[in-house]
Design goal:
The protein is an all-alpha fold. It has helices spanning 3-9, 51-54, 115-142, 149-155, 157-183, 186-215, 218-229, 232-242, 270-305, 326-344, 346-359; strands at 60-61, 67-68, 102-103, 106-107. It has two domains: 40-57 and 321-388, no CATH class; 115-305, no CATH class. Strand 3 (102-103) and strand 4 (106-107) form a beta hairpin. The chain starts with a helix and ends in a 29-residue tail after the last helix.
Length: 388
């Protein structure tokens, strides 16, 4: 075969969905196209779309000109409903625009909470309740509101610090949870669910410490604490709270004061201090371990419900540039008809195009110049490669 015949038979490939006029004359690159409002999904084959889109199986809504439902809202789990959000759907693209029913000068439809959101609401209410109770208790201990609170600040300082951190983080986590619940923001709820595990760890830590201290040789721990960890200032604070003098007697590891001296008749502090520590440590780990089932329940609810605060699965996973609109569907149908014209003739393609646009309610949506063909071109100019 001669070179002349080869050059005559081989034609350069053409772009099926982009007119030559839309290409930059300087480079000829298909990437340098003018801005278009159409979806990038117009380059997909219509056979790749679901039957609900092709045959108008979606549930219509609205008055007058009725469009196929774009998805989202409380009914998105119904049979035949779409999953992708539309601009009129609730919590479109994340945060609610307004709490007072208006957004952008128009009234939003009244939103209804689903069962997942109500479950998450009550679980976070419970979590906020015992976190707030915990922070009140530890703050009253730090500010010496309770009777003998100063003994806890002296003898159980590590446990008190960890409990304070746990209660503070619980308050912060619950606030993040409220923000995610009220704003329908799954990003906040993801952070909220992760922080619940850290709160669980900080909740169990002081309970384990107090349980171990009370039930494993409390006598030896008190002896070591009084002789090695405490100084004169700590001795004096415990003596003033428990009205005792010295560890065993005024002559053994005592802090001299107006009521504690060599001839004082006050008893030693070991007995009262051990009794107080046994009582406080027991109450401490009982309360802490009693909250563990509730914390686990809050974590499970957060894991199961944080992604279902609305009845849409996911959060608008398809990028906006690829979301179909009615104009994009019109372009797709025009290009599909051009392929039919290549194979079966313009009469068949015109009939299929008219019926398809009528079924999809696309008569009032003309195709954009990006991919529109006013008249069907010849097969040589608009050949569509198979399998692309």
């Amino acid at each position: 075969m001669s070179n002349t015949n080869v050059n005559t038979q081989l034609d350069p490939p053409s772009r099926p969905f982009a007119s030559n006029a839309s290409i930059s004359p300087r480079t000829g690159s298909p990437l340098l196209r003018p801005a278009s409002t159409l979806s990038l999904s117009i380059n997909y084959l219509p056979t790749k779309f679901s039957d609900a889109v092709l045959h108008n199986g979606l549930k219509n809504r609205g008055k007058g000109f009725r469009l196929p439902k774009r998805g989202g809202g409380r009914e998105a789990f119904r049979s035949g409903e779409a999953r992708m959000p539309g601009e009129g759907d609730e919590d479109y693209d994340g945060v609610q625009g307004s709490f007072f029913g208006k957004e952008g000068g128009r009234t939003r439809p009244r939103l209804r909470w689903n069962r997942f959101k109500w479950t998450l609401f009550f679980s976070n209410l419970l979590f906020s309740g015992y976190s707030l109770a915990g922070i009140i208790f530890v703050l009253c201990t730090w500010f010496d509101v309770w009777k003998h609170a100063d003994i806890v600040r002296v003898g159980n300082r590590p446990e008190l610090i960890i409990s304070t951190i746990a209660a503070s983080l619980g308050i912060v986590t619950s606030v993040i949870g409220w923000a995610g619940i009220l704003l329908n923001n799954r990003s906040f709820l993801a952070i909220y669910t992760f922080l619940l595990w850290i709160c669980f760890t900080l909740l169990v830590a002081p309970g384990y410490m107090t349980f171990k201290k009370r039930n494993f040789n409390l006598d030896g721990k008190v002896n070591f604490q009084w002789g090695r960890d405490f100084g004169i200032n700590e001795w004096l604070r415990i003596q003033n709270q428990l009205h005792c003098c010295g560890f065993f007697s005024p002559f053994v590891e005592a802090a001299i004061s107006q009521v504690c001296y060599s001839r004082s008749v006050l008893p030693g502090c070991k007995g009262p201090y051990m009794k107080f520590e046994s009582f406080v440590l027991e109450r401490w780990y009982i309360v802490t371990f009693a909250l563990v089932p509730f914390q686990i329940a809050v974590i499970v609810v957060g894991l199961l419900c944080s992604n279902h605060i609305t009845y849409r699965f996911g959060k608008g996973m398809m990028p906006k540039a690829y979301r179909l609109s009615m104009n994009s569907m019109a372009v797709i149908m025009d290009n599909y008809a051009s392929q039919l014209a290549e194979q079966y003739g313009e009469d068949v393609a015109s009939d299929v195009l008219a019926r398809s646009r009528s079924n999809l309610h696309l008569d009032g949506h003309p195709a954009d110049s990006y991919g529109s063909r006013a008249s069907f071109s010849s097969p040589k100019q608009d050949s569509f490669p198979r399998g692309s």
